Structure formats: C-alpha cells, structure tokens
Amino acid sequence: MSITVRPLTPDFVAEISGVDLAQPLGTIDRDAIEDAINRYAVVVFHGQNLNDDQQLAFARHFGPIATSAQKARHQDIKHRIASPEVADISNLDGDGNILQPGSRRRLDWLANRLWHTDASFRAVPGALSMLYAHVVPDEGGETEFADLRAAYDALPDKTKAAIESLVAEHSIWHSRGQLAVTQYTPQELASLPPVPQRLVRRHPGSGRKTLYIASHASHILGMPIADGRLLLMDLIEHATKPPFVHAHTWRQGDLVIWDNRCTMHRARPFDTTKVRDLRRVTTRDIASTLEQAA
C-alpha cells in the first residue's frame, strides 16, 4: 500500500499516512517521504508504535545518524537512554523520575523553548530531526515550526543582497547563556567549540534559498558583535511571524520529521509535573554550510 501525503498548507507541513514505520521501508515509500520533506519541510506521521531501535532503523534510510550532544555537555549525569544516537527530549532524569526544578539537565533543557535549529553548533550540522512521542501531557508542550524558506522569500531585495555572503558563529553555549545557564566544566565547553555557518544557504533538495538562523547563532563574523546580534534578532523576529509558523499538537505515537536546513522550531510550555517523554534521532548534513553551494 503506497503512502498518502496530505499538505496542511500548500508548501509547509504535511501529514503522511499509509505506512508502518516499525516495518522495513521500501524504496518507493522512502523516496516519496523524502520528496515530501523536500517540499513541505515538516512531515507528521500519526499512530506509530516505535522502540528506539526501530526509530533508528527508520532514520538510517535518510542519512548517517548524528550522535547526541547531551552526553558531551552533561558528562557527570546519569542518562536514561543508553544509545548515543538517541536524544532524550523528556523531563525525566536517569532513573525515570521527573526532573527537579533546579536540576542541571532541566535548566539546560529549557533552552529548547528558544527558536533554534538542531546541531547548527556543529561543524557538520543536523539535517533531518525525527522526534517520536512516547508519552505526552494532556495539554501544552506543542512544538512550533518556522518556515525559513518562506521567510527568506519575503525579505526585501535590499536585505537579501546585504545578508547574502554573511557568516554567523554558532555555539550551544551562547543559546544556554541566554537563560543564564553557564555552569559547565572546561572539558564540557571544549567538547563543542563555536563553528561558522552561512546566514543564507540553498536547500539541496528543493533548490530554494533559505535563512539559516537560530538561538545558537551568537554574532556575525566581521561585524561588530552588537550590530550582528541585532541583525540576528531582527531576522528571527521576521521569520517567526504568524504567516511562517505552524504549531504541532502532539499525540502519543506521533513521529514528526523536520528539516533543520530550512526550519527553526521551539517547544512550548506545559505542566512539568506531568511526564513528557519524546526521543529524537537526527541525521547529519553532508558538510559545513560553508562547504555547500550558497
């Protein structure tokens, strides 16, 4: 049975049905899913039943898997999920208990509520993120997505010309520092050094130009830091206007794929005394954005 793709808007976010992602994925369905990602940037599968190994097996159809940065920045904390390829996007500690308000991992995890794109702070950044919902609260905890292709298209030509060749420095420590989360060891800081990334890139699957911005973007290289940060703030404000944003309300069994090369996302608040257990697998891009066609 072939899959069905139902767009939620003409060019951004689609729901895909007619496929059990726990089973081996045929070539025709794999290619159809990739085509949908290239066109809609965010795709949603409802009613899936996946364990970590099945989620990883599905993700490997779309590229090499990136290791999670969680263990690098929390080297002295017990982790709930053993696999270095599965990121624990939950409010649970290593023993499966709800995180205490002042715990290091909870404070670090709060940065997910900033607009960001996964792993832009790595020299070879993230490509596709695949987030699966094991347990979700009755309300709250939505994920919002911003279409950076449409946001780029809507910029004035003068602005497009001004930002075309700019490069931003990205650092996970910059995004955490915005929430005053700075208690990291020298070893942790050294494990994820800042990296340069293009501010404007061309999406390889669609050929469309797109902004590449995030809370990890600290400043613009070659520009006074204050001016560069104001430019980044203006671009994020522009890119997250309502016409460019879609909010996903989670159900247990949802798998959502988004393309980090042309979207930003952020988590929304929920009652953190309730369990929220989602797990993410992210594929790696082919190279630094500086090494790819602009």
Instruction: Give the SSE string.
Output: EEHEHHEHEEHHEHHEEEEHEEEE
Classify the secondary structure makeup into a structural class.
alpha+beta
Quick one: overall form? globular
Strand order of the largest sheet: 1-2-3-13-5-15-4
Number of domains: 1
Specify the biggest β-sheet: 7 strands, mixed
Rg from alpha-carbon coordinates: 18 Å
Mean pLDDT: 95
* CATH superfamily placement: Clavaminate synthase-like
Task: Describe the protein's architecture and organization.
By secondary structure, the protein is α+β, with helices and mostly antiparallel strands. The protein has a single domain (4-286), classed as Double-stranded beta-helix, CATH 3.60.130.10. 24% of the residues lie in helices and 24% in strands. The chain has nine helices and 15 strands. β9 and β10 (209-211) form a beta hairpin. The model has no long low-confidence stretch (mean pLDDT 95).
Summarize the structure.
By secondary structure, the chain is of the alpha+beta class. It is 24% helix and 24% strand.
Task: Throw out a few tags for this protein.
294 residues; alpha+beta; Double-stranded beta-helix; 7-stranded mixed β-sheet; 3-stranded antiparallel β-sheet; 9 helices; 24% helix; 24% strand; globular
